[in-house]
Amino acid sequence: MRRVLRQKEFGICRRLANSLLVILLTVFLAQSATAQSSCQPLGPVLLTLTGNLGIDSCQGVAVFDEKMLMSLPQHQIETTTPWTEGRMRFEGILLSDLLRRVGAANAKTLLVKALNDYQVEIPASDAAEFGVLLAIRMNGVRLSPRDKGPIWVVYPRDSIPRIQDERYDHRWVWQLNRIEVR
pTM for the full model? Predict the structure, then answer.
């Protein structure tokens, strides 16, 4: 009888040990993926964030390739713009999600920079207040540098009348490739 109990106890212990091992491996892999997702892109870098970042494993710099950006929750905005004709569907990631990912959810301002060296300071509060999108696609087509890509900062101007104003238009940075978090 004691031998049967010991075998059952051993079986239970072994299952618990296996479960614990699976949990630990899952946590380790998730941490490794998170560290890799903003430190070591496998493809060409589309976006670099610097400045006041809450991540310490990347030495103050977070870089993202397309696959890494696509791993964040995807969103879309349908709106008109001063630079296109008609209503367009923009797809990409929320700026607020990206800021959370790099530990910069409490940032005050963002110096947003483009491939052509255009830069503008945007209040970081715009990210949450307006649901600013970092568009990677327009009408289902991947944005290229020729058509305002690789990333275009997009505001939902049709759904928020107060941002249908020139004061906000200069914040629509196209050819986005760098953000300095302050």
Answer: 0.78
